[in-house]
Amino acid sequence: MRSRTLLRRAVFSFLITSPLFCFFPSRAIAQESDGQPTIRFVRNPDPAPAFALTSLDGKPVSIAGARGKVVLLNFWATWCGPCRAEIEDLIELQNKYKDRFQILSLIVQDDDDQEAIKKFVEKSGINYPVAIADDDLRMQYGGIVALPTSFLLDTEGRIVQKHEGLHNPLLYELEVRALLGLPIGRVKVETFEDTGQVFIKNAVRATQLPGVDLSNLTPEQKSAALHKFNAESCTCGCGYTLAQCRIYDRGCNVSKVATEKIIAAVTGRPYEPAGPPAPAEPPQPAQPRAPASPEKPRE
What we know:
Blueprint: H1 2-17, E1 30-31, E2 37-42, E3 52-54, E4 60-62, E5 70-76, H2 81-96, E6 101-107, H3 114-124, E7 130-132, H4 135-140, E8 149-153, E9 159-164, H5 169-180, E10 188-192, H6 219-231, H7 242-248, H8 253-267
Helix pairs in contact: 6-8, 7-8
């Protein structure tokens, strides 16, 4: 563990000081056309839903209690392999920036009893608060459709980024440093409008949706189609609008067909069904792809 930590520190120091950083491959950090690595934060971010929980060791856990610090809100489960894989890096990150940064760890969909979870946390050496999140809190944060899912909050308690799955730990450190006003070398910081990537309710702002081709519509037709996407509910059982469902579950054929019918209607063309959907790819643990809910693998 020590050798891994020393290596990571050396690599991070090299990355933020060397001009060669722009050539370092990382799937977690966007690369611009000029080769400059980029991190992105939500423009005009929304406040994180408040909660008041009790940690496994009996202490209060809340966003309000970490006010003034950058917060990483981490949803996970003890059975989740990628969740377990990132624990060591999160421990190091918490220790390194403990005065101005706080990880709040929320366990979801875990079949183990609280005592077993507590033993796992102690054995793992986790140095940040761990609490159990109920379904209501999970839904306030968009359902948590993949594990791990982490939300990054600025010092004012607003969600500026969301990450699903296992990511390069350097990404988290760069984002934390940027929010704390610390040097991040040649890394560029950009902002984007949340159109459902963070809060599903913001799908109403989207002008493009996954799997929906609006390229042949006039501006008036596109506006009419988007209005219908946000006004009509998907009938797949998700409880979302068509626009929200396209963002929440790109593999949903119900919302895909419904949006195609709306596009045909606003353009005055007959609806022509596409071919049968391609078979779904098997899930990849390190890069989860939005299942209906995080479920423990069956034995």
